[in-house]
Design goal:
The structure is a single chain. The chain has 396 residues and is α/β, with parallel strands linked by helices. It has two domains: 143 residues, Lyase, Ornithine Decarboxylase, Chain A, domain 1; 222 residues, TIM Barrel. The chain is built from 13 helices and 17 strands. The strands form two sheets. Strands 1, 10, 11, 12, 13, 14, 15, 16 and 17 form a nine-stranded mixed β-sheet that branches. Strand 8, helix 9 and strand 9 form a beta-alpha-beta unit. Helix 2 packs across helix 9 and helix 7 packs parallel to helix 9. The longest helix has 14 residues. The radius of gyration is 23 Å and the shape is globular. The relative contact order is 0.16. The structure holds pyridoxal-5'-phosphate (PLP). The site of pyridoxal-5'-phosphate (PLP) has 17 residues, from helix 10.
Length: 396
Amino acid sequence: MSASPSIPRADLYAAADRFGTPLYVYDAAELDAALARVQAAFGGARVFYAMKANPNLALLARLRASGVGFECVSAGEIARAEHVGAGGEDILVNGPAKSREEYETGARLGAIFVVDREEEVGLLPPGSRALVRVNPALNVSTHDHLATGAAGSKFGVTPAQAPGVLRALREAGHHALGLHVHIGSAIRLVTDFGAAFARLAELRAHTGELEVLDVGGGWGLGADLPGIAREAREAASAFGAQLWVEPGRYLVARAGTLLTRVVGTKRTGRNFLLTDAGMTELLRPMLYGAVHPVTPLWDGGEAQTWDVAGPACESGDLLARDVALPEPNPGDLLAVGDAGAYGAAMSGSYLTRPRPAEALWEGGAWRLIRRRETPRDVWAAEMGAYTASTHDRQGP
Ligand SMILES: *Cc1c(COP(=O)(O)O)cnc(C)c1O
């Protein structure tokens, strides 16, 4: 795993000087390469990018230009898809608890809905195109919070319910395209996917042929894509269906790197390397125990073992544990790799920390694709409710 794909160290320092840190950087060549790997493995399948992995407009526009559609799970995501020019054919509206606004904007655009429960048949706008999400109730090899296809998960209908929901959709005048399954995220074992897809294929006897089988995403970075694709094609052919896929992480994770400056060090029995990025910029280590590769962009002597800790007043605010790095100097840059998915997307303004800037490396040059927020951006929505003039009237 490389932490900063093919961007020269001097250019990473140049970006940090120009845009400040913490900074997300993306390598356009790696984004394109990931899409090419997906297209090679799943040749012929329709690709919908699950934009929750990284909704940056510049990245969406780039994927759009390659013919990729979007899987959206909120009204805001639908608005982003529309903003980069996606039409209804290219938008899947998904989610376990869709809002009225999501149905309405989806309908206005002519988007395709993924039905997550029986009751939704009566909520869809008239004449909707729809897939039915099935929960295959399987245990998969990923963190509990990343498993969406396990028994007891809130997603989808049961395999036993699925044929009835397809029928109900048709009876209500909707266009039932087929079935959908997404078993979770960061899954590496082909057998996990194979078991889920086979569980769906078993429904063929009750559903008849279908137009579409959407097998979701969830492919871990080290996953055997051709192996997953083989299982998916087999299931799709059981239904005589066209294959659709919804990768998120796989398309953007490798391309992204979080650049953070070393603030200093501290020794308390453990060695802490303190950085200017933490849980507010990259939540995954704290949320999922995710392990991201860290690469020192400084030259040093012998490596020591460090915990990389952020600035937040939370003891869980660690970017990495027990990593071997040479002694740094304040201001040195640390590259946190494989951070393009669920990194910037999950960044937050807790502690009134403005969200970080994002920059794209393309053709040997940097382009700022999201400016760094300011503290004023963070409290902008509070203005009017409390103004400086109110404060002035009431005194200190
Ligand atoms: C999150 C999600 C995806 C993408 O998951 P990745 O692990 O990022 O590939 C695809 N489909 C659905 C329904 C999702 O919720």
